[in-house]
Amino acid sequence: MRGRMLGLALALTAGTTAGADELREAAGYLFAPLPSTIPAVRDNRITPAKIELGKALFFDPRLSASGVFSCSSCHNLATGGDDNLETSIGHGWQKGPRNTPTVLNAVLNEAQFWDGRAEDLKAQVKVPMTPGAQMSNTPENVVNTLNSMPRYVEWFGVAFPDDAEPVSFNNMAKALEAFEATLITPAPFDAWLNGDDEALSDEAKAGLTLFIERGCASCHRGVNVGGHGYYPFGLVENPGTELLPADDKGRFAVTSTEIDEYFFRAAPLRNVAVTAPYFHSGKVWDLKVAVEVMAGAQLGEELTGDEADRIVAFLQSLTGAMPPVIIPVLPSETSSTPRPATVRPAE
Ligand code: HEC
Ligand code: HEC
User: Fold this and answer.
1) Which ranges carry the Cytochrome c domain (predicted)?
2) Measured from the CA of 58, which atom of ligand 1 is nearest?
3) pTM for this structure?
């Protein structure tokens, strides 16, 4: 395989069509274009009513105890589905331990979070609403809040017509998952995988060749160019405690198995060019530097400046088109809506 890849790299530099076809064939084994329809998810039939409800919930800060934080506060769809902060700022101005990943295409990740501790989006969305977490709420208070607003009660009834109690924490999670499943962003790379030769620049194609040849694709593969599989951050060389703080042992916290210490999910790389800063610690702001760190830490390789630029050009071809999202008008609160809890920043 490696020999063939090398051959294809040479053919590519010569700019032959055969090289382009071979590269597409090799890429076809490793990656996949985004689906053209909304992907199906486990135990949750996606319907237009669920999507609309989920969109309202996504933008609703009243799901947080303080009334300040919505999903959109940290996963801002106007800025790549993340918050562009080193690590997130949540309830009571607390600084979270990890960088916020994008929600874009997250439905296609094998599991959610840097350590994969939530098996799907339904499981994931409940986490920020637990006491002390980003939105620091309780399931009871969330359900009371939703039940206090007749429009929400009506919308849950339409979205979950077969349920005796449509307004529930579980159904809230399902509606949010349905909305998130629509956040799919087809990129130039998809157009190219689907046969459009012009969709990638020569530099991006050369970057893709390096990405495959040097072994980046052995971890970052599949439809999200990552998002599945767990590997040590620092497989070959430790990237240092600034990038890999000693107290976050990654997947170890999920499995309690020593062998999983400092293992993290291979990051999904779609839209990576618009989701700086990088790594779970959020310490690297420049994509080129992140690529160089990866080459050293994961592969023990040093890239030339030109090689890193080419890989960056390939990664830029993963920046996709946002689906149009019209900001919803939310149900208005009533006299029985729980009041926001007053919280002060920690001194
Ligand atoms: C205060 C900021 C904040 C808020 C509010 C927040 N998140 Fe997150 N989100 C994060 C952080 C930080 C992580 C990564 C945590 C980790 O890996 O341990 C994350 C992870 C995720 C992931 C996993 C993505 C992946 O690639 O693994 C999804 C999906 C997600 N959040 C959706 C939501 C939804 C939906 C809401 C609203 C219910 C929400 N988040 C509220 C900060 C936030
Ligand atoms: C052995 C598996 C492995 C290899 C090989 C690998 N990576 Fe990674 N990559 C990871 C893991 C795991 C992470 C998450 C690191 C963390 O915990 O922050 C990651 C993170 C990244 C990030 C940061 C993404 C973000 O959203 O913060 C980029 C960019 C990246 N890799 C690019 C590359 C490139 C380019 C190559 C080849 C030079 C490469 N990777 C090789 C496993 C790998």
Assistant:
1) 49-157, 202-319
2) 37
3) 0.94
